[in-house]
Structures are given as structure tokens and as C-alpha cells.
Amino acid sequence: MNAIAKAAETLSPARPLLAVEGLEKRYGSAIACTDVSFRMWPGEVLGIVGESGSG
Questions:
Q1: pLDDT digits over 1-55, tens only?
Q2: Domain span including residue 35
Q3: Kindly report the CA angle at 20 between 18 and 23, in degrees rounded to 5?
Q4: Does residue 51 lie within any of the structural domains?
Q5: What are the GO MF terms of this UniProt record (predicted)?
Q6: How many domains does the chain have?
């Protein structure tokens, strides 16, 4: 078992490691994304990929 898996076992599953709600990203007046919400739980891996396939 690796260190990440061990750490995940000790964390409470009742609370996410990270919770994001209503995130918006702008580049000047251009809106890249709006109203983004997600939660990350122990042991999860998250990737964010744009429309063009870039991340």
C-alpha cells in the first residue's frame, strides 16, 4: 500500500478533501468557465480538460 492510499484510509469519508462551488475563470472580458462546482474525496484523482483537449 502506498502513502496516498494509507492517507486516504485515515481521512473521514464524510468530508471531502476539497469542495469548490460556483468557480468562474476569466481572461479579461472573456469567460473561460463559469459556475463550476466539484468535490474531491480521498483517493480520487481529478483532471480538467478544455474543449480543445488541453488541460
A1: 677 666 666 666 678 999 999 999 999 999 988 999 999 998 899 888 878 877 6
A2: 3-40
A3: 150
A4: no
A5: lyase activity
A6: 1
